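Sample A.
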Amino acid sequence: MRAIDHTTLHRTAKYFMDSGRAESPEEALRLLQSFGLAIMVSAAAAASYEGQVALLTLVNLARRTFLAGVEVVNLPDVARIAPLADAATLQGAVIELGGQVTQSRHGQWPLAVIGDDSAFPATGTGWRLVWEGWRAGVVPLREKPLPFMSPAMELAPAMAAAVCAAELFAFHAGNHPLAGKRRAGLSLWQPGADWTTAAADEPALAYLPSRLWLIGLGNLGQAYSWLLACLRYEDPSQVELVLQDFDRLAESNDSTSMLACLDAIGKMKTRWVAEWLERRGFHTALEERRFGLWTQRQEWEPPVALCGVDNGLARASLEKAGFELVVESGLGAGPQGFRNFSLHSFPSSRRAEQIWSGTQGTHAPDVSSMPAYAGLRKRGMDQCGLAQLASRTVGVPFVGLIAGGFVIAELLRRLHGGQAYGVIAGSAASLSDIEASAIEVEPYGYGYATAESLDQGEKG
């Protein structure tokens, strides 16, 4: 029997262990191995930048969570233009990211539809991904489609994919009665507002952030990296990224992090992510130490930090490292809170050390009494191993990507004269209840690059 520990356990399978629904890690994994997804993409969507962002993001998210498989049915054989994979064709990109290209749909799997095609099914369990401007979401197939799919900022189709994955997991897991029956979505321009209604002042992207320091390259840091690659920079070589992490990739990272794969186990996270970003034209520099009070930004280094660590002491130090702007996000813990996310930006009305002083990180509920852990104890796992395993929280990639969307959008809003926020908080289980606290800030002056025009982008 294969050894199970905190470095190898699938972090989404842990949901079924921690909630008491599975009596062993093997049973929890078998549940995920019964979850699958079919995807259909119209010819127009497959040939568009936004459609490819939606498709490739959804495949990347879904293959990590729905282990029965991800099938893309009758995918047109077109060139890949979204820089989210290395393959030259869209079919090759789907396969590279872990999906399958098939000629017929699996009869029992829910369906995700990207694009408008009258030949697609309009009944059964499934969702249509929709986006417009800075807004994105999903609509059940049986509902009349929303009049979306007009040009959008590039994070919107990625958010539609993340929302779809969240709804699909809730449906498969049976832990939300409305999954598969409701609209779900979000606005990156007006967090908490009705995502189905356009805001008159939603701008097209003209400016993109160019000098960033990414702290932590796990679930959240890799989500930031994926989303930065979604943006259409006119010249990606103008972008300077400092990547900071001290850890190596483990098998468990494959279940939560957008750039992780089993072939990369044991490699430094900084170097793996840097290689991926460099292939997309970005410039990177590496910092392979823990972030803390000893970390000091020099005046020539990027002035904006994007933080994605769950260590409270590190987060308490964020304003002491010399950054001019910090945007950080965190994820909830445990079988009830793993879909929660939050964002803080600094400077703000509260200092980072006031929020996290004296805390070590995410406080997950004690799940060691659940049947799965009792079974591992009987099988001979020692107390130290059990404690390490129980202390790791449930993890899913789609919540990290939603949180990452709000982090990158915070910079984009400020670059385009939109509202800044000190706090944004919500749950992927209830995106209509996002709370946001607006703050007044100076114009964004921390480095920018120009965005590629839509016409140029569509030419690939």
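Sample B, a different protein:
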Amino acid sequence: MKQTIVETLLNQKHRTGEQLPSVRQLMASFKASSGTVQRALKELCSQGIIFSIPSKGYFWGNRTAFSNHPPVIQSPIELLHNRFMLDWRSGAFSHDRTLPSLKELKARYHVSSSLLLKYLSQELQSGFLGRIGKSRFFINSTFQQETKTEVLLITRCTQWGAFAPESEREVDFIRLVYRGAASRRLKLRLLGYNEETNQWIDRNGVVCHLEERKNTIGAIVSTLLIQKPKPFLSALSHLSVPVSIWWEHPQEGFHSLFKKQPLWTFFNSTFGSVPGRMMGRFLLEKGIQKVVYISPYHASSWSQDRLTGLQESGLVVLPFTDSTNASPWDYRERARQNGPKNTVELRARDLLRQRLKKMISKAPTTEAWVCVNDEVAAIIMELFEQKKINKKPYIIGFDNSSESYLLQFDSYDFNTEALVLQMFYHLNSDSLLASHLVEIPGSLVEK
């Protein structure tokens, strides 16, 4: 929420010395706590983007440069306009329904009826608003049409253009991108990329070319399960619009590839040691000092990263790992090669279950068992119910999946919602992120 406030404020048009909305007004607009708003404002202050004057508020610009000049004081109607536009850009008002009633707007902005009506009449004359009867207003449909643009959503696909999400997190990612585009009145164009043929295929199975997309203002790209990201992203290199990339590969993989892409930003929430460190700090705060780390996917960098993060947090970690496989999809691939297609998931889970039984047979039931993902944690919970584990330790996983709620174990949430939100912010060319890699921190969810 703090980052949302920061990014939304940065997206506003402002003049140097112009006053920002008050903390109370920002709390009402974002439905955020005072502490969250204050942290957002302090971050902007530390960067020299805004400055504060005690008892007066916050102002745009550097205080040193303007200390000898009084700040520009906004009129009540200007303040109301800024707050209204802030709400509109943050998605509080929709084009497909009327604005809240005059009574609700008056209470929302803490203004008089006369000031509110004066402002709404002003926007009505400008063409931004339309009116139904005497007291209901809406965002003008003409303005809506002018702001409607196209964003590409690019994922992997089969040779026939079919796309099937392989994980719960991927389903969440796609759903949130759809919802984010709709709330911003953006037209979303889904394109698949097939690694075998190096072709772009639309949702109707028709081969197409990126050059045909003339109205594109940006692209949101998923590299999940893309085996060779370099040729995949090289095919996007000619795009002259901002590109937000969900980077599901080791962090060092992108540095040498695309340093010369100023409009590209990579977003990572899974790889690196941050999730493990946050997990470790969470456990230490609970008074847990020693853990067992269980991973049947230790051939992967993400499994190794999580172990490293746990160790860096100060925990005593006993690793019980298997470096034969790198991901759950390795088990599914083995199941596909040896049996009917309609039972692949069941047989893959059984293969994993058998492997885990051997791995944990000598694991001490110490204070906590940290599992590399929720699927592993869920299978261990099942083994306990089947009396395969004599004493149940505290079990915790990564992913915060629906299964973690079903079986009631704590889990680390990778914050896919914030990931998608930041990717959309990057597509606004007026607020390009300075870093080529944006780390999206998650949080522990206790059940």
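Observation for Sample B: The chain has four domains: 1-75, 93-146, 148-269, 274-413.
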